[in-house]
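Morning run. Coffee first, then this:
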Amino acid sequence: MLDPNYTSNISIGVSVKITLLSDQTENTGVVKEILSPLDHHPMGIKVMLDDSSIGRVIEILVPENKQSLKILEKLKQTESDKLEFKASLLTPLESVEDIMIQYKLKTKLEYDSFILKIKKNIIHSCMKTIAAFANTDGGTLIIGVEDRSNKIIGLKNDFQYVINNDADGFLIELKNQIKSYFRSTGILAYLPIMEIICIDGKDICHIEVNPSIEAFTLSEELDTKSGKLLIQKFFVRISNSSEEFTAKDFYEKHWVNHKIKYFTNS
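And here it is:
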């Protein structure tokens, strides 16, 4: 059930059950106006119903949308060849203080340098999953969920580093990172769903990846003595992990079977 303590789970026109402020009795109806100024209230969000009664929501009576229900079902599953959870896209979840203590960082300069390196690793991990899904049988990537416990973390930390600090800014950043790592917009044709869904007051990112009919590689820059070298890496989904293949093994051992499976039906 949707949590009635979060404004983000309630909208005008939604059927709810409330506790009336006037006499603490219960009433049901359709939300006419949301009166709570904050996104969260532990006693329930204050609303006005279509009959002008005012109270705090104790239950949202309409079912969650179908997409949310599908995601909730996936959160009950473990990672597999077609399902992956990532806690974040851009940032480590630990606090500044915890990171500095854990990695013995003494100055802000050291911290900023460390975060830049970690950020690249975190982004790469998500991009690697997208590439592996596309190059294999497709799959679902959910960002904002801890992979071992399936606990919803949300995207609050990531929102700090995107335009306008919100869901739209996150999706813009996601698309920009995809274009950068794949050096192409072609991969976007195989991502029919990239959306932010709010569950229990926390935003998560749901990405669906279709199996591709073209091989996708991740572009990575390596620092060498003669300058930066751009290399292409191949990834394939095997069980619950995204494995790197050499170009030879990818084309000779994997892609030939992939072509038979998907190209003949394209």
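The chain has two domains: 7-60, 67-265. Good start to the day.
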